[in-house]
Write a structure and sequence with these properties.
There is one protein chain. This protein has 256 residues and is an all-alpha fold. It has one domain. It contains eight helices and two strands. Strands 1-2 form a two-stranded antiparallel ribbon. Helix 4 runs antiparallel to helix 5. The longest helix is centred in the C-terminal third of the chain and has 71 residues. The chain starts with a helix and ends with a strand.
Length: 256
């Protein structure tokens, strides 16, 4: 260690540049740390948004069909009024399975009539009865299938709500974490700036403390036997020209 380093360390408590540099370094580190955290949080928000969008897409693709099935079931049950019921009946008779079911029922009625010795086409009552029963049974099955399809709508809506709700919570957490980090960063910067502003006062306090210590040491020394002898010797030397007998530390004066 050089002599300059020794004196630099000796007088360091009475200077402010070191505290000011330390404060500046702390401010720089706080800003850099927050910038890195903000970047990572931004990446996190992007990932949450991206993956939640993918998760929601699967539900949204099915949403139109599920909504249509739900409304169709409401038509069947009469929840949408008379117009809804008419739409449901029209939809039923246009179902691909309706005509084959009806043809099968009519064919069965004709075969039963022939088996009894009658002629096909002369059994209107049997055909009407069998076709009506088949219609009612098949329509009930049709309504059940519609109910199953309608059940997907609440499931899809619930799935979307969960995706959006979870996404909102995750984004809120990320924003809250960034807000907390920003607050902590500003607190650290404020403390560092305050330390830099108070550095001159601290240096002055150290200087006055050192001077006080020196004064106390001097007072203690003067009150000691050695200090008293020194003061007496100095006093005798000062007045030796008047008495010619005084000595300094017990050594006779030249005029004695």
């Amino acid at each position: 260690m050089s002599l300059g380093d020794i004196f630099g360390n000796l007088f360091a408590p009475f200077e402010t540049k070191y505290q000011e540099k330390a404060s500046a370094d702390r401010i720089t580190a706080a800003n850099q740390g927050y910038a890195q955290l903000a970047d990572l949080l931004a990446q996190g928000r992007g990932a949450v948004t991206d993956y939640s969008g993918r998760a929601a897409q699967g539900f949204t693709n099915l949403q139109p069909g599920a909504e249509a099935a739900f409304q169709h079931y409401l038509d069947i049950t009469g929840a949408n009024g008379r117009e809804g019921q008419l739409r449901a009946q029209q939809s039923y008779v246009q179902d691909p399975g309706f005509r084959p079911m009806l043809d099968t029922a009519i064919d069965a009625a004709n075969r039963a009539s022939v088996a009894r010795g009658g002629a096909a086409g002369n059994n209107i009552a049997d055909v009407t009865k069998l076709a009506s029963n088949a219609y009612l049974q098949d329509y009930g099955n049709y309504a059940q299938r519609a109910a199953v399809a309608a059940g997907f709508a609440p499931t899809i809506e619930s799935g979307l709500a969960n995706v959006y709700g979870t996404t909102g919570q995750n984004l809120a957490t990320l924003f809250q974490n960034q807000g907390t980090a920003a607050q902590n960063t500003q607190t650290a910067i404020g403390k560092a700036q305050a330390d830099a502003d108070l550095a001159p006062l601290e240096a002055g306090k150290n200087l006055w403390g050192a001077l006080g210590t020196v004064g106390n040491l001097a007072a203690s020394f003067m009150g000691s036997p050695t200090g008293s002898s020194l003061m007496k010797g100095m006093g005798g030397s000062m007045f030796s020209g008047l008495t010619g007998k005084s000595s300094f530390f017990g050594v006779p004066s030249a005029t004695g």
